[in-house]
Every structure is written in structure tokens, then in C-alpha cells.
Amino acid sequence: MGNPQYGLGYRTCPRRQRKLNACLIIVERFRKSVRCLPCHKEYTAIDTSLIFWNNIVSACGVPNIIISDRDLKFTSEFWTNLYDILGTKPAFSTAYHPQTDGLAERVIQTMEDILRRFCAYGMEYKEHEGYTHDWVTLLPAVQLAYNKMRQ
């Protein structure tokens, strides 16, 4: 199998103490695996690309295609140059037609639903400060649960 193909999307989440209020969700299109990376909705294109580079490219290799919406975080000159350097083909969904990347959009919606339920219905996670319902500390468990589901 060739290099991976990814779908990217942001979702806003409740602000927490570390000022993280968004999640970059990355879907590997063939295996349908997901990576959820906490971040801030005000991150720039450079911040977003560094998150992608440090967490995805360094671990999984350079993708052939990256599909995303037309958010400036993915369409800026910086990303365009990065696509050229990596030899990656960008593909952007059409405005008001997110079904262009239906798989990633569906996974992102599912992850959002799971997180909301974990936090609302009392899933507790023990950390050094005590028990929490915080979405950032629950994110690895949600990611693991999704990736272990039968697709």
C-alpha cells in the first residue's frame, strides 16, 4: 500500500485550564484510524502544520493526499509551500458541500458525540490532580475506543 491519505478537520471544544479549546482530528482514509490532537482554535496555519508534522508525518510518513475544508489553516501560502516540498496533493472540499470528504466529516462527528457523552455522563479519568471529566484527558481513551471498533 502506498503513502497514507488524510482527512483533516477542526472541532471546537469547551475551554479548559490549559486554554485548549479545539481538537484537530485527522482521519487516515484507508485504515479509517483517527488521531485527535488537542489545540487552540486560534492556532495559525504554521501552528497547525507543526502539529501535523510532529504527530503524523514523523510517525506515519508523508501522505499522498490531504483532504480538508477551505479553512485558512489549511489553504494558506505556508501550507501550499509545504504541500510542494512534500509532494503531497491537497484536496479541498467544496464550500457548503462537506460530503467531499464524507468519511472524515462522519468520523469527526462521531468523535464529537463520543466526547460529549463521556464528559456529560460521568466517565471519570484519574489524573494526578484527582478525578476529572475533562475532554483533553479523556481524548486518548476516546481515540483508542474509536480505533478499536470494528469498522
Automatic annotation (TrEMBL):
One of its GO terms (molecular function) is RNA binding. One of its GO terms (cellular component) is nucleus. It comes from Austropuccinia psidii MF-1. It comes from the Eukaryota. Keywords: RNA-binding. Residues 24-151 form the Integrase catalytic domain. Transmembrane segments: none annotated. This is Integrase catalytic domain-containing protein. GO terms for biological process: DNA integration.
